[in-house]
Amino acid sequence: MKIAVASGKGGTGKTFVATNLFNVLSGRGERVTLVDCDADAPDDLLFFTAEKISETEVTHQVPVINKDACTWCGRCSNWCNYNAIFYVPTAKVIEVIENLCHGCGACSFACNTGAISEKPVVLGTVTSFRTDRGYPLVEARLRVNEMSPVRVIKSAIKEAGDNGVVILDSPPGTSCPFIQTVDRADYVLLVTEPTPFGLSDLRQSVETLKTMNKQCGVIINRADIGDSGVKNYLSVEQIPLLGVIDYDTDIARSYSEGRLITDESEIMTGFFAGLADKIISEHGTGSN
Amino acid sequence: MELAVISGKGGTGKSSVTAAFATLGEKLVVADCDVDAANLYLLFNPEHDTEQVYIGGYKAVVDTSLCSVCGICESYCRFDAIKEVEGKIIISETSCDGCFFCSRICPTDAISMVRSDKSRMYSGSFRNGMMVYGSLAPGEENSGKLVSMVRDEAKRVATEKGMSTILLDGPPGIGCPVISTVTGVDRIIIVTEPTMSGLADLRRVHEVARKFTAEVGVIINKADLNEAMADRIEEWSASQGSTLLGRLPFDRRVTDSMVAGRSVVEMHPDSDISKAINKIWNNLMANGKE
Q: Which of A29, A47, A140, B287 is spaced 20 to 30 Å from B101 by Cα?
């Protein structure tokens, strides 16, 4: 079973929930894997002592144009929908702008003279770790200055496989990186905060998940700040509220130092254990 | 002068700090470049003068009555978007990158490309100037392009209204929309928090920021939650040649102000955090005029 931990708004506590859920399940000896899908800002590893098992580079294929074989027909440039081939036939200029290339392969197919070959460009890495308890943690990491984490996220989820419970720590927002993560999940756990910003972004996440036919439940973090807007919204929309976590300086401090509250507080361990039981008992450990 | 507020890590307080800057003094143009989760309009209630449709990326759609299920499209698609399921070609909208390759090579012309027109851009006035923001339809790609559109509109409005300052509230992360937000701005302001994650994400976003010529400054928000970590971040920033613009205390009144639809400097102008924000903004403005 894959559980995505997500939120429209950044910084609501996705990583906090995902890492502690993983910690509690692995502490109980259940089959569980944590996948850090926030490839822009992957932080899950900071909370564990883990040994690197393997690392794979995620690449895409970008074109290399052999100007000696080029007949300046312009088909490659016409076929490219990303403006990644800069082409001025009168000046005999043709250049690949690698930053704009999405690696679709259309240009090399379009070329009639075999002037286009391809080379791999690294977009990021997928690294597998084993925590000191012996559990798998897979990290998607976008290379700095690359544009899109989508391929890296997909590879990481594939690498993690389907063994037992797989927790996907999702990127923020509701655009492609989020969609690619939750698309593979059997259940989505949304983490929000009870503020107008939190509500606005929660609403957008819920609307998106509806169009994808994904079941979701909500955790309200820092529940004692802000207002009652989120709770009202959940009851109107009949979305299950799975738990509330009040603001707590001990939690904030432990998180800030890269520690797990479930290693330090029995109450919080009980909270996350209860949360895991609730989701698993209602949605099973199988995969859809 | 164009200033961009970014963070790497989400939820460090970018929008709260931006909102405070935007309500401090001289009228300005504020643009919400976090098109994926635009929030500033909630505090500013701008009067919408204009609404423009943003045409997003293309998606491939197959007409099954024309499709011969030859599978050529599936074999060439590099985004794993096309699958043959029970004798039918299915194209996944979420995986399709909109490259046109399949529609061009389909021997029966069964695939067409359609564009999404659900995203919007708005601009109008708010109580301290003008505001521009984008609203990306869920699941859309090309958010960088919508960011560029928002920035162009902000520039147009600034010229039209004779406002010299444009303040951009950026998205989290380090990818395309962030790069679109900081390209060509005069100042980059990174808001971080004193946590291990805050520092790790600061390092990554800083690496993106320093590729540009703009001066990079760092604000440590909620600094008193972990002073030792704040010190580490300050040391690290100094070692990278970035200015520490200031430290802000954790203050629940920031959230209370948000709930009231105001910025903290509007609700609690005499609080320590408001004074600190005021000082940072004055320094930024003084530097900009040199």
A: A140
CB–CB contact B204 A82 (8 Å):
no
Cα Dmax for chain B:
72
The answer to whether B263 and B43 have CB atoms below 8 angstroms apart is: yes
Tokens of B107: 């021997």
Say whether both B133 and B108 belong to one domain.
Answer: no
> Which residue in B275, B231, B251 sits closest to B283, CA to CA?
B275
On whether both A82 and A203 belong to a single domain, the answer is no
Expressed in angstroms, the distance from the first to the final Cα of chain B is: 11
Residue pair B96/B59 in contact (Cβ under 8 Å)? The answer is: yes
Chain A CB contacts of B181 under 8 Å are none
Q: What integer pLDDT is reported at residue B82 of this predicted model?
A: 97
B101 is in which domain, residue-wise? Answer: 58-115
Judged by DSSP in three states, B264 sits in helix
Q: Are A148 and A105 part of one and the same domain?
A: no
Of A11, A145, A175, the CB nearest to B208: A145
Residue B289 confidence (pLDDT): 62
In whole angstroms, give the CA distance from residue A155 to residue A35: 11
Q: Token digits for B133?
A: 């923001």
pLDDT in tens, B94-109: 889 999 999 999 999 9
Which CATH number fits the domain that encloses residue B67?
3.30.70.20
Nearest CA in chain B to A174: B138
The backbone region for B286, taken as left when phi is positive above 0, alpha when psi lies in -120 to 50, beta otherwise, is: alpha
Strands B88-91 and B82-85: antiparallel
The 8-class DSSP code of residue A186 comes to S
Residues whose CB is less than 8 angstroms from the CB of residue B2 and which lie 6 or more positions away in sequence, other chains included:
B155, B165, B166, B168, B184, B185, B186, B187
**What is the rounded radius of gyration, in angstroms, for the C-alpha atoms of chain A?**
22
Chain A, 162 to 221: residues with Cβ < 8 Å from chain B are: 171-177, 179-180, 183, 195-197, 200-201, 204, 207-208, 211-212
B170 touches chain A (CB under 8 A): no
How many domains does one find in chain A? Answer: 2
Beta-sheet pairing, A136-142 with A116-131: antiparallel
pLDDT of A58-77, one tens digit each? 999 999 999 999 999 999 99
pLDDT at B290 over 70: no
- Please state, as a whole number, how many other Cβ atoms lie within 10 Å of the Cβ of residue B55: 15
Q: Which residues of B touch A40 (CB under 8 A)?
A: 8, 172-175, 178, 204
Same structural domain, A139 and A98? no
pLDDT at res. B287: 82
Written as one string, the DSSP assignment of B188-236 is: EEEEE-SSHHHHHHHHHHHHHHTTSSSEEEEEETTGGG-HHHHHHHHHH
Angle between the N-to-C axes of helices A14-27 and A266-283, in degrees from 0 to 180, rounded to the nearest 10: 90
Does the structure show a pLDDT above 80 at A287?
no
